[in-house]
Write a sequence for this structure.
């Protein structure tokens, strides 16, 4: 009997290994396309004007406009549908919420919980009345939305849109009559088959087809953006219509895609159904559909409806899109903008602003699958010191565990994990370990034992604990939709439960799409059951979000609510920004993957996820030294800066590629540490406003059409523009510098005119990076082993002074409508706790105008945080060399002005006019007058 069991185990392992060899690479036929997805195929066959729904019983109820949508005839290829309930609600700051659901379904349709902020409903504007107009020959109801905007419900055929008051449209739903709502049923028709089959898997679909589709039009738009995650252009290309070859819709369905391909509409690890439009004529608007089911979205090329006779308002250009979802309800938000930062603020007022990270998390992270053992960890750590390369976090992948049992250690390889972490912490460094959602089915494993006893796992269609295969083999998956399961999971991160962990250990959630190696499309079956009443098809895209949430809560609880958590997640959904960082997954060491990392990071930022980055060097493959160096030089500006590699790749720590390349990588990492004060200030801006750290150029220059499709450059805040080098042996780069101001090369201080494309000579020492004139950037120029050791170091302020267009003129020019020639901000707190939420921080604005540098307090109320840090240098780019001295008030002290190094560690390099050692405290009010 024992021999038979051993043979069976070997057979299963063999089959599992064979399966892995098939799964763990990009294979197109592993995943469904639209034609293999019944709801998508049906939706794409639908013709404009197919919807026969009309709004009846329109009234104001509980502060919202409500109506019934009633079928006025037999829809094409369908029986008449039962009435639907429509609700329109207006909220502060120009946000309109549209909800459509069944009036009396046999089963309540799933609505995604815990994504919309709890306090959002408190921002509702209680509508008191509606007015009736005849618009385009149809009766319509109009309600107030905000100053300058109204919401309109056309009755027959039904259409919802936002317009400027008595003016142009902004966003509309069902203008093309594509709306359809498949209602739940309990009984099949004779001969009807609800089951769906893909490869060897069968989806039982016990409630029948339940998809929802509709068109969304963006008026005054030149391009649309958003709906991550995919490796494609930043501006979304049309997927249907004239001039478009056979193309798939943009798919939103979280999947474990190993070695994904670039320039593809195929969805990857995350799904955020939020689309942003932008155009020179109208500005920016946004549309968000809160729905966690699979979604497919077509961007329709101009003229797609030419044969259908659709007549939308002709005075406005528009972009039509077509949204298709397998399940859920309509719960959609319209954001009127009109500026890009307005839309960012509006969207994050619904889903939350990004959390404020700890300072160490903003620095450099070193990762590999896997650092072998404690000796390997110690040697890698020592080598960073030997080569004078700072880093803050060392990561351990799945091999550190006891047989892929998460929250455990392989005690042969890591016999003293606490001591290992304390050694790193003594240098101000931290450790991150991986914790995936698949729980090894082993009765001796405490997590599995407790989860089984408490009934905490997702169930299969037959009501049993779902059993799928992942890294540990046979695994089950926690039902994170249930709050009590999330609370229980959070307790597992205490140092008592996670034996071997210390307070300096943080967490990495991988594989949380969820990944199931033997499941349909490498994920969980759609007919699995959560919470006893929700099918996985309804929950899927939010599963990783809830896992991320519970893990972050666990780290907060571990520190009794004092310390901010750090949790990296691969899966992403709307609201993930509240719980930590995200990375772009399993990329490849190729130049095109370096290039596509920029639109991927920009898209995530535009949809709320500020804290994101790509694996530096590429996860798969062995990068040539030049590619690796170029990736570090660009990656140093990602909001999340981490190098990572697959276990089959050659080791690629920064010192393994020769002295010259080590120096170049060191210089790139040093640049990140030098700019940490600026990055940290930008993370605080994101935390308060929703405006991302890494921004498309058009977010800062919204009327410049040359920026609308720029995929190669990004703004870091409002002050820095960075463009990568994306080809090997490059000697030149074409860089567009927007605006009318000058731009200063970050390393040389050389000035370049804005509003034009510059063909620049490039070398292997860096990538093009510029500071915008009129801005001030805070830096720390002394390099330590980690960010923690830099806390008390002095600051440098770099002023990019506005000047006349004539580069030979070195006079300060103050624009007639402003007395300011440069300004910038600095935010400082303790870098780790939540005390900043109670006012414990320093927030200063520095202004250069009329020959004076002024420090102004932006902190609300009485600040409770103090710092003795001072400013030791003020660099004035673009100021004449005639100034010789400066006076500091109120201290009435003098300071020297002389030419000094632009970069402190490069004393043989370029120089700039510098106020030396003013030694003014960052926490104080002061004025420095320049003579």
């Amino acid at each position: 009997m024992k021999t038979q069991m051993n043979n069976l185990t070997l057979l299963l392992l063999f089959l599992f290994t064979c399966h892995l060899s098939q799964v763990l690479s990009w294979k197109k036929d592993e995943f469904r396309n639209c034609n293999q997805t019944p709801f998508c195929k049906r939706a794409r066959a639908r013709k404009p004007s197919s919807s026969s729904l009309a709004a009846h019983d329109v009234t104001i109820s509980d502060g919202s406009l409500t109506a019934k949508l009633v079928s006025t005839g037999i829809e094409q290829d369908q029986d008449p549908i039962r009435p639907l309930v429509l609700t329109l609600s207006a909220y502060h700051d120009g946000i309109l919420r549209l909800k459509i659901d069944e009036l009396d379904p046999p089963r309540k349709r799933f609505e995604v919980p815990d994504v919309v902020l709890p306090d959002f409903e408190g921002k509702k504007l209680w509508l008191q009345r509606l007015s009736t107009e005849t618009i385009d020959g149809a009766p319509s109801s109009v309600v107030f939305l905000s100053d300058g905007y109204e919401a309109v419900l056309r009755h027959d055929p039904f259409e919802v849109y936002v317009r400027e008051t008595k003016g142009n449209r902004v966003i509309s739903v069902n203008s093309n009559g594509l709306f359809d709502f498949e209602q739940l049923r309990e009984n099949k028709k004779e001969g009807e088959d609800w089951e769906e089959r893909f490869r060897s898997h069968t989806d039982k679909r016990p409630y029948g087809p339940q998809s929802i589709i509709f068109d969304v039009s963006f008026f005054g738009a030149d391009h649309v953006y958003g709906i991550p995650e995919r490796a494609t252009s930043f501006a979304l290309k049309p997927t249907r219509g004239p001039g478009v070859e056979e193309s798939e819709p943009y798919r939103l369905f979280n999947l474990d895609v190993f070695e994904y391909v670039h320039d593809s509409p195929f969805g990857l690890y995350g799904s955020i159904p939020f689309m942003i439009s932008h155009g020179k004529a109208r500005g920016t608007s946004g549309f968000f559909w809160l729905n966690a089911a699979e979604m497919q979205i077509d961007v329709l090329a101009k003229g797609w409806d030419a044969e259908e006779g659709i007549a939308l308002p002709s005075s406005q250009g528009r972009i039509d899109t077509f949204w298709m979802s397998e399940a859920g309800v309509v719960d959609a938000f319209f954001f009127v903008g009109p500026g890009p930062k307005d839309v960012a603020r509006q969207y994050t007022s619904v889903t939350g602003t990004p959390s404020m990270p700890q300072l160490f998390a903003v620095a450099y992270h070193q990762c590999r699958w896997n650092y072998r053992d404690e000796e390997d960890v110690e040697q890698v750590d020592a080598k960073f010191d030997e080569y004078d390369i700072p880093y803050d976090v060392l990561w351990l992948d799945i091999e550190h565990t006891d047989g892929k049992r998460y929250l455990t250690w392989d005690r042969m390889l890591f016999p003293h994990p606490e001591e290992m972490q304390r050694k790193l912490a003594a240098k101000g460094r931290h450790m991150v370990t991986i914790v995936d959602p698949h729980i090894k089915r082993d009765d001796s494993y405490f997590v599995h034992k407790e989860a089984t006893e408490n009934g905490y796992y997702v169930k299969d269609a037959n009501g049993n604990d779902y059993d799928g295969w992942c890294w540990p083999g046979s695994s089950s998956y926690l039902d994170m939709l249930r709050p009590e399961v999330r609370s229980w999971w959070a307790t597992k991160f205490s140092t008592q439960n996670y034996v071997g962990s210390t307070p300096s250990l943080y967490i990495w959630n991988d594989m949380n799409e969820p990944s199931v190696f033997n499941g349909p499309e490498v994920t969980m079956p759609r007919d699995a059951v959560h919470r006893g009443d929700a099918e996985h098809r309804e929950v899927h895209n939010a599963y990783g979000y809830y896992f991320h949430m519970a893990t972050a809560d666990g780290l907060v609880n571990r520190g009794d609510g004092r310390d901010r958590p750090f949790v990296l997640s691969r899966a992403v959904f709307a609201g993930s920004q509240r719980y930590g960082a995200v990375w772009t997954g399993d990329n490849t060491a190729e130049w095109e993957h370096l290039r596509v990392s920029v639109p991927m990071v920009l898209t995530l930022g535009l949809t709320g996820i500020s804290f994101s980055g790509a694996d530096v060097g590429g996860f798969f493959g062995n990068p040539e030294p030049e590619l690796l160096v170029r990736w570090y030089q660009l990656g140093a500006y990602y909001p999340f800066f981490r190098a990572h590699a697959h276990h089959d790749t050659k080791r690629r720590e920064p010192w393994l590629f020769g002295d010259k390349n080590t120096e170049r990588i060191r210089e790139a990492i040093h640049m990140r540490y030098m700019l940490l004060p600026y990055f940290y200030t930008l993370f605080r801006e994101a935390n308060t406003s929703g405006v991302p750290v890494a921004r498309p150029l058009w977010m800062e220059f919204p009327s410049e059409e040359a920026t609308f499709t720029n995929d190669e450059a990004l703004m870091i805040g409002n002050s820095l523009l960075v463009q990568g080098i994306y080809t090997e042996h490059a000697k030149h780069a074409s860089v567009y510098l927007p605006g009318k101001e000058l731009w200063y090369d970050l390393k040389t201080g050389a000035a370049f005119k804005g509003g034009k494309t510059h063909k620049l000579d490039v070398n292997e020492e860096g990538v093009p990076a510029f500071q915008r004139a009129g801005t001030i950037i805070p830096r720390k120029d002394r390099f330590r082993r980690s960010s923690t050791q830099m806390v008390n170091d002095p600051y440098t302020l770099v002023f990019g002074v506005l000047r006349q267009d004539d580069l030979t003129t070195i006079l300060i020019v103050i624009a007639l409508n402003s007395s300011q020639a440069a300004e910038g901000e600095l935010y400082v707190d303790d870098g780790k706790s939540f005390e900043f939420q109670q006012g414990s921080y320093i927030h200063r604005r520095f202004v250069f105008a009329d020959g004076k540098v002024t420090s102004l307090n932006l902190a609300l109320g009485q600040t409770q945080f103090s710092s003795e840090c001072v400013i030791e240098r003020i660099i004035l780019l673009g100021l004449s060399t005639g100034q010789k001295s400066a006076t500091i008030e109120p201290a009435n002290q003098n300071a020297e002005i002389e030419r000094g190094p632009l970069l402190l560690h490069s004393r043989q390099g370029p120089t700039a006019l510098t106020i030396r050692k003013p030694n003014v405290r960052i926490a104080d009010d002061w004025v420095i007058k320049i003579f």
Remarks:
- The first strand starts at residue 53 and ends at 61.
- The two ends are 94 Å apart (CA to CA).
- Residues 2-23 form the longest helix (22 residues).
